[in-house]
Amino acid sequence: MRPKESATERIFHYFNFFMALIPISIILLILAFLSYYSYRAIIYNGTNFFTSYLWYPGQFSRNPIIVRGILVPYGSSFGALLFLIGTLLTSLIAIAIALPTSLIASLTINLYVPRRLKRLSISMLELFAGIPSVVYGLWGILVLEPLLFRFLEPWMRDHLAFIPGFSGAIVSGSGIIASGLILSIMILPIITSVVSDTMSSISSSVKDGAYALGATRWEMGKYILRQGSKIQTLGATLLGLGRALGETMAVLMVSGSVLNTLPDSIYSPINTMAAAIASLLDSAFIDPTNMNVYALTELGLLLFFITMVVNIVGRTIVGRGILRGYEHEI
User: Fold this and answer.
1) What is the pLDDT of residues 248-283, one digit of tens each?
2) Which partner from 107, 166, 172, 319 sits 20 to 30 angstroms from 117, CA to CA?
3) What is the C-alpha separation between 246 and 213, in angstroms, rounded?
């Protein structure tokens, strides 16, 4: 028979329950806020929001008009396709660079770095996550963009033009490549930390047994560490993708922030959902109908859903791998 709880235990139980509800409540409040401020834009834009790349605030010098019962600026049009493409391209480039780099770094730390320096190596990598994004953006403008414009992008155009999307005009160093590189540096600590910790948690008996059977360090990393952490690697990649999708300031500084122009090559300037919200929000408030603000809120709602789904799936995969012992599955 379960013993009766004391008054102190009941208070502690309800307090913990209340504290656990706070994060969920905040997320629901954010969702309610975004839904409330974007429903007019959802009615006005319809499916055109996802199929059009034209984003035009309208003519404020003319009287507003009523469309589908909603007061909107004359000639306004709001399409998110350009921002969706920009977010997808820059995030995929970031993952393509950060994932193999994280795997190599994790294997190096677990196989070749002395035990006394292993924790220090992880801590140094995790310090990258603490650098403000505006610093990454400033470095991208002053250092990365000139290098891309003068050296890397011309070399890619001259030698990789046979690949679709790798031939085209090079306007400046800003654009898809710069944004993807910056994002890859920013998500590298997330992926590396999860993967390296998973590799470290693999049983010592498994590692010793592999060495006893004559496995080399390369074989240990390939067949034991890498295979044993494949579930967590997938989860860590999704967590890094979630960070890349929502990154704002650094991408805003190096993306080119174009509007109404789809990219025709990998060297083109681009824009993302998060960067567009940050750059367009100030001018949106001059709209007397507030439709520009509502449209940006709809864009934020879309970004919220995408980021939440990616992060929830990533954390679920990482958590299940630890709870069910996937890190020891060879």
Assistant:
1) 899 999 999 999 999 999 999 999 999 999 999 999
2) 319
3) 46
